[in-house]
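REQUEST FORM: STRUCTURE PREDICTION
Request ID: SP-0412
Submitted by: Lab K.M.
Chain count: 1
Length (residues): 392
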Amino acid sequence: MSDAIPRDMKNNLFPVPIRYMDLSSDDVGANAPAIGAGLVVFVAEGVPVGQTYVEEPERPAVLAARTVLPETIEHARNVMQAPTTNRDVSLLICTKDRPDELARCLASIPRQSLPPVEVIVVDNASAGDDTRRVVEAAGATYVRESRVGLDYARNAAVRAAKTAFVAFTDDDVVLHECWLENLMKAFDQPEIGCVTGLVLPGELSTPAQLIFETHWGFGRGYKRLDFGPDFYLRSAPYGAPAWLIGAGASQAFRRQVFDDIGLFDVRLDMGAAGCSGDSELWNRLLHYGGTCRYEPTAVSWHFHRKEMKGLAKQIRQYMSGHVAALLVQYQNTGNRGNLRRILIALPRYYLRKLRKRLPTGATSDTFFLKEEILGCLNGAWYVLRRWKMPAW
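STATUS: Completed
RESULT:
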């Protein structure tokens, strides 16, 4: 597994270059020379506004005209010029045994255009004192949570926070300087209980990172999206696809949300069923009439796993958490659409993937098919054994 590469990636050159090109610069002008293969991200008003993968040399101006929408630039301009009214926010990070990644993340916080009232790092039972030393060196608040599980750590962070808003990021993330401010600007209506942001790849240096970004990545595009009661009701027959809302590595909440609908379910996410503690909470928020917003100008960069073995484990955990969350969502809301997704939609989906893989062999989108299916089975078994366990 560690040496194998999907057949559709055998001709790829690594690392894959990632180029950031400002639309106002000469590099994107009509006379700018063609650029080679890689990921191109176009920037306007100081934030990314579009991206495209380049396989053959093309001129940046042609790429930009095909990729970036005028309304996207206009939205970025409006957000960057809007006043910031919500400033009472804590920045929360949960971590376990990754002091180097944590130090890199913490180093991006002092550059934030909106300084958080407090930075709280929850150490989820790391071995040794390295994590504590990194947190103290950064001047952040250190909290220890000895019960292993990301959602135990998230709940400890929420309980420790003293502000009206809380924002979460992960230890393997680096933040754009306007990340926190633009998340807060998106809370411009009282019904918006959660805001997520655009997460771009920090690097694409290995096949594993490119597979993840292509098929499992956190980015949700460059258009602001609201997910509210209409979205929830429209998708009820097969359960609301709450994972479309964003990524737990970039999310913020009104603190009141946790008082109204509860904390993160500790049966979910890393250290437990596998993942989806964030999307289950978004689903619960939608169920109770709230709205989640995706705000693309709140930008951060995630550093994906580099090794195929680590990615295989991650994908198994993802699908385990996905099925576990569907069962928890059924338990919490009574919406049978979650069961239909498990019993009807997922088998159909994997039957199609299996039919696609059998004739020609594994491509990047079917490479981890075994891990996905085993993860689904594990997630169901995990939650069913803990059906009566307290959620938080």
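NOTES: The CA atoms of residues 15 and 205 lie 4 Å apart.
Reviewed by: T.R.
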